[in-house]
Structure formats: C-alpha cells, structure tokens
Amino acid sequence: MDNWDDLRFLVAVSKTGTMTGAARLLGTNVATVSRRVERLTQQLGQPPFVKTAEGWKPSAAAAGLIEVASAFEGRISREINQNGAQGARGPIRIGCPPFISSHVLFPALAHSADRLASVQLEFTDRVFQEGLGDNDVVIRPKPPTGGRLRTRRVGEMAVRLYRHEREGEEWAGLDRSYDETSVNGLGLTRYGRPPLMRVPTFRALADLLVQSGLPGPLPDLLAQDHPMLEPVPEVPPFQIELWVIYHESRRGDPAIEAVLDWIDAAFAQLAPPHHAK
Prior knowledge:
It is a single chain. This protein is an alpha/beta fold. It has nine helices and eleven strands. Helix 6 links the parallel strand 7 (172-174) and strand 8. Helix 1 (6-16) crosses helix 4.
C-alpha cells in the first residue's frame, strides 16, 4: 500500500457507515473521503465497501485489512495514553442509550474527579446497534457476538409496564424493531394488539406516556422521574443486562481503564427505585 494514511479513511468509513460520518470523524470533507476510498478500490481491485440499508459495510476484500488497521489504531492510542500519563488523555468516546448517560453516568461525574483526572470524554447517543461504531467504549444490552471486542457486565435495569391511574385498551411502545423483544412484548402480551403510537427511544417514550395518557414499557430509571406514572401490578418486570464493550487493542490503555472503572462505580451507586404508591 503506497499511502498508509488511506487506512485511516478505511477505518473511519467502517466505524461510521457513511462518508459524511467518516468526514466528521476525521475532520475533513466528504469529497476527500470519497477520493481516498476510490484510491483504495483501485489498489484492492474491488470496492472495499458494499452499500446496505444500514450504510456502508466492509466487503470481503477489505474486512481483514480493516481489522488489522483498527487494531493498529487502538494500539497507537493505548501507547499515547500510557506515555502521557501525567497529561491529558483521550478523548474517549462513550456510546450508550441517552437515558444511561443522563441517569447513570452524568450523576456519577461529581464523585469521579480523581478517577477521571485528565481524561477527555465525549458522549454519543447509541442505542442497540452492534459493534463500537466510532466509539471507544459502548454500553449496550447483551454482549457482542463477534469481532475482536472485550466485554464485561456492568449492571442491569428493570423494565416494566407503566400507566396513569386509569388504563385503557391502547398503549404506546418503541418502534417495530423491538416487537420481537421483551420490551414491546410486555405491551403486546398485556393488550393483545400493536401499540397505537411508536417512538424510537425510551426517553421519547417516557414523554409520550406523560403527554398522551397511554400506558407503555419503561425502565424504572426513567419512570421514577414521572410520579404520575405507576407500574401495572399484574405484569411482572424483566431485567435487561447491560454490558460494556471496547476493542481488545485498548486493553491496558490507562484512559480506557479509568473510564471502565468509572462506569462500574456509576452503576454500583444506583439506588433501587421505589414503586409503592
């Protein structure tokens, strides 16, 4: 390969799934990303990416090269953070559902000055997508099924049906991608019909339940912010396990280790919500 810098563009497109996202990640423009990808196409003899409904995915010709380049990039970041232990480290991008940031991570910042000393943090909204994307650390339900990723369980959250004082026959839920999960399954089992209204995230669903008067599934963490909502007593909750993942090349990175320790502490500090009415 004539220009090793091209690999940065290969990895960025793989992480973000779009030319625009890669350009943002690298601080350049879409035309430059497109030009570098085209040059890689010529060197490989075939396109490094294929277009899918979810964005650009690595082709078979480029998958191995991307994995090697990603690991190399991770080891560089690890070495920089190890050698810069007395100065700023990072930035570390943390991807997780928005309510995990607002209700778990942010409240723990006030007690983490020593643990996160000199670590720069960036937070991104990442719900249940596979992999890391353009993040260094991701918090998500269920561990990944492949890739060179390290994972550990950090906690769990209870999800149950919530309602106003009166409960009708209609309900609100998450989008159709959740119909095969226990989340929308709570409402489908209880009401025997699809939700009347759908939204993409739990935070939006909490606002919808408050404003519409409809019942629906919510994590206890979010429902406790809305005292007008009460659990449906006949429907037991279920627990969603939460896992933190990061690339194995970042093992031993002091910035990553500090962030992982802080995430563990943040979940450990969670107080059980009260449901008695």
